[in-house]
Amino acid sequence: MVERGSAHPAQTAQQGTLTRLLGRVSQAVYWLLFALLFSIVLEWLGMVFWWPDEGLRHSREMLEAEVGYLQTDFRRSLVSSDPARFAQTVADKAYVVLFEWTRLVDVLGWLGTPPAAGESGLRAQLHQLYQPLARFILAALQITQVFALRLAILLLATPVFLLFGVMALVDGLVRRDLRRWGGGRESSFIYHWSKRSALPLLVTAWVIYLALPFSLHPSWVILPFATLFALSIAITANAFKKYL
User: Fold this and answer.
1) 146 and 37 together in one domain
2) Do 80 and 145 sit in the same domain of this protein?
3) Angstrom distance (rounded) from CA 228 to CA 203
4) pLDDT (tens digit per residue) in 34-53
5) Whole-model pTM?
6) CA-CA distance, 108 to 131, in Å (whole number)?
7) Which of 72, 80, 66, 63 is nearest to 157 (CA)?
8) If you ran DSSP here, which 8-state letter would residue 1 be given?
9) Looking at the 3D structure of the chain, how many domains does it have?
10) Given CA atoms 85, 88, 94, 96 in this order, what sign does their dihedral have?
């Protein structure tokens, strides 16, 4: 009976850790899917209202611009020895898994092939329905490739957030010690507010960059949010209670 009682809390703690881990993973997948759907919808709206003259060419130019950023500015990374090839591989794998393994490319090719003269039936009707939507579907495919490429860029930029976070943590702990020995006041409100803002800043940076409806150099998104993330870490460490 004693052994059963002692094993039960450990099993409960293990299940709780696994549940939290799965919850974090599901939340990450949810936000990634949200960013992907949001970027596709923005592209469709832009094709109708904002850049009707460019049409399908807009998403193609975005893809070319993202590849250009990789080839010129992402030549070194702690994640990969060849960042451009790593990002291109991620985008290609995403295309293969999402569109080739699911046979979506074959279905679209079948729908896009004009029916023979005098042909009638289901395929002819589906072809007529597909024609007005073809450019929107192809734009969604290209935006998905842009999304995968940007996701790879964010993975390559992860060390930037880690570096900024470590530097901010050290600075905040030093300021905490100065406040502790100097008799400074502490605020639990500031501590809890800054602690809760760290993760939302990371999520916001990823969602904004992944869902941008135009090409923008990654540094204009990553560096500001990395700075804000570091600021929240520094304030959290600085406002941590003086005595444990």
Assistant:
1) yes
2) yes
3) 12
4) 888 888 888 888 888 888 87
5) 0.73
6) 11
7) 80
8) -
9) 2
10) negative
